[in-house]
Amino acid sequence: MAVFQIEYRSEILDLEYPVNVIYPDLSRVDKPDDTDIPVLYLLHGMSGNHNSWLKRTRLERLVRTTNLIIVLPNVNNAWYTNTQYGYRYFDALTEELPKVLQRFFPNMSKKREKTFIAGLSMGGYGAYKIALETNRFSHAASLSGALSFDGMLTESLDNLAYWEGIFGPIHQFQEQAMPLLESAELSDKKTKFLAWCGEQDYLFHQNNLAVEKLAEKGIEIDYSTSPGTHDWYYWEKEIETVLKWLPVGFKPEERLS
């Protein structure tokens, strides 16, 4: 595998923007001359960044014989949104970043059926939001995603200024605790969705509720649960499930030499 650490000038964010890219090892994949390589945008959670998946998991090793480009972007703690304080992370990721990457990696597919997105916790929310609102991803997966804010955002919430800086007046979330329902209204219903959450995770109730409510909007989710908490130990295991679910010919690590 090759891991590229890229920093480019983002016109949308007006700053130097970092992103990591895992590129297939051409000596190990079945189609080394492929000019239409599938791509997975893999999103981090709160307090993480573009290095989190590489530092906390064996992701690079897992995909070493899979013909798949993995893009690891960074939004700090901005929830993959266009924030109230002017940083348009949603636009930067959905409009600018794909164009920049296409110049670096012309073999990266532009086709929807070969473009995927996934994330954990805050990144699970981001993956669903981006997939629902752009209709550019054939598959979207969430691991322990913050898919609903039900019971989370209250007047007594710590650091209220932060949350309002991201989403706006807090009362809007008390009235609408699941902004993904609004995102679902923009969906063409063609994307396939997967979600997993640990049964001891503090977001377990929110995942159950979100799956139910999104189904009412016509968003069917392949949802599974198992014993687990909000922890990298479980996300490292479940990312294998995501990779097996994607149509990329993923080969589990135990088969590798």
From TrEMBL:
Organism equals: Streptococcus moroccensis
The EC number(s) given in the record are 3.1.1.-
Q: What keywords are annotated for this sequence in UniProt?
A: Hydrolase
GO molecular-function annotation terms?
hydrolase activity
What domain of life is recorded for the organism? Bacteria
What protein am I looking at? Tributyrin esterase
- For the keyword Hydrolase, the answer is yes
EC class of this enzyme?
A: hydrolase
Family matches, as PANTHER family: DIACYLGLYCEROL ACYLTRANSFERASE_MYCOLYLTRANSFERASE AG85A, ENTEROCHELIN ESTERASE-RELATED
